[in-house]
């Protein structure tokens, strides 16, 4: 019997198939999901991994055994599932392990309207009930539901394009690396009808990821895209992760663009449509993000790292937009859910509305030198944090806060050091007004952490 405590995480379910997550476990989770959410109907979608179809079918068996009808949207990206949940007003589940290797799979669950289900909002109860069902033996109850197939890809693509005005953009050469993930399925209908000359890299759906991992946060996975942008004289490159909910941008010179820069750009565009609105950013995005939001009349709100915190704060404040340094972008017009594809359309609109190249278009939004996220393996996370705190205590003008890990701010620089929830790691992000100052701060912190 599967040990569900190993695969239920803070925001989703994820594990190795079939060792940690098998069809029996998926069926139990499906039944538990219906019982905990009291869903009369729900929608599901799945990615291209070989294990996704049988796991989704098992989940549907569990859900229908508890009397719920299941709308099967078939292949889709995670943001297509969020669209389905919002447009149909149904709770939903997406079968994916995002950027994890092929042997993994998992589930992302939401309530109707794409409201996330996390450890504090029902996921723990679903885990515990599924464990009870596995221990007792699965069995149906009266009122068996039905499964119906519904293709939502065209509607999804149309909805995204209704949220961004692309009517006047100039012709663009665009290279997209789908990493053999779901971007290869969703990009063509979204781009259809736009003045885009598309070069497609790794659009074949293949959950074994034969070319490279579908994780654009790892620089090695961007190299093919960067080279193709330069070789083809393209205006822009876009990279999606496995479930295509994250999007990474490459400029015309083949240079990687910080998600903080994209956050600032999209925030300015959304504030032009919604003057005075709130914009959410997590605490490791660039200091330039809240500065630019405020300069354009918006209200910046800082949160912890993690989509559950972003979505909760967006709902609380009615924020129009939210961005994370992990290349997740959240939109009020998209049920407060994240969509890398929608962020990509905003970038294409900003680029295509004028004649400057992307690097010049984005230059006003890139103000500081950043380290990127650097991981250090430590035996005692708390002791390492205490050493860093002691090192910087007493320095003139230095401020501390502990919203998420330890953030230390000085004159012209800041860094955040936060522990991983699942590994013996400390994650460092540092930023400063110039490269030399950033490197000095970065190296001092790493020396203390790794001592």
List keywords for this structure.
single chain, 451 residues, alpha/beta, Alpha-D-Glucose-1,6-Bisphosphate, Chain A, domain 3, 4 domains, 7-stranded mixed sheet, 6-stranded antiparallel sheet
CATH superfamily of the largest domain, by name, is Alpha-D-Glucose-1,6-Bisphosphate, subunit A, domain 3
Largest sheet: 7 strands, mixed
CATH architectural name of the largest domain: 3-Layer(aba) Sandwich
* Mean pLDDT metric: 96
Q: Residue share in helices?
A: 25-40%
Total number of helices: 15
Assembly state:
single chain
DSSP strand tally: 23
CATH fold assignment of the largest domain: Alpha-D-Glucose-1,6-Bisphosphate, Chain A, domain 3
Domain Alpha-D-phosphohexomutase C-terminal: 373-446
Domain Alpha-D-phosphohexomutase alpha/beta/alpha: 6-131, 155-254, 266-368
GO molecular function, one term: metal ion binding
Cofactor: Mg(2+)
Please give a structural write-up.
It comes from Planotetraspora silvatica. This protein has 451 residues and is an alpha/beta fold. The protein folds into four domains: 148 residues, 3-Layer(aba) Sandwich (Alpha-D-Glucose-1,6-Bisphosphate, Chain A, domain 3), CATH 3.40.120.10; 83 residues, 3-Layer(aba) Sandwich (Alpha-D-Glucose-1,6-Bisphosphate, Chain A, domain 3), CATH 3.40.120; 107 residues, Alpha-D-Glucose-1,6-Bisphosphate, Chain A, domain 3 (3-Layer(aba) Sandwich); 81 residues, TATA-Binding Protein, CATH 3.30.310. 37% of the residues lie in helices and 23% in strands. The strands form four sheets. Strands 1, 2, 3, 4, 5, 6 and 7 form a seven-stranded mixed sheet that branches. Strands 18, 19, 20, 21, 22 and 23 form a six-stranded antiparallel sheet that branches. Strand 20 and strand 21 form a beta hairpin. Helix 6 packs across helix 7 and helix 9 crosses helix 12. It starts with a helix and ends with a helix.
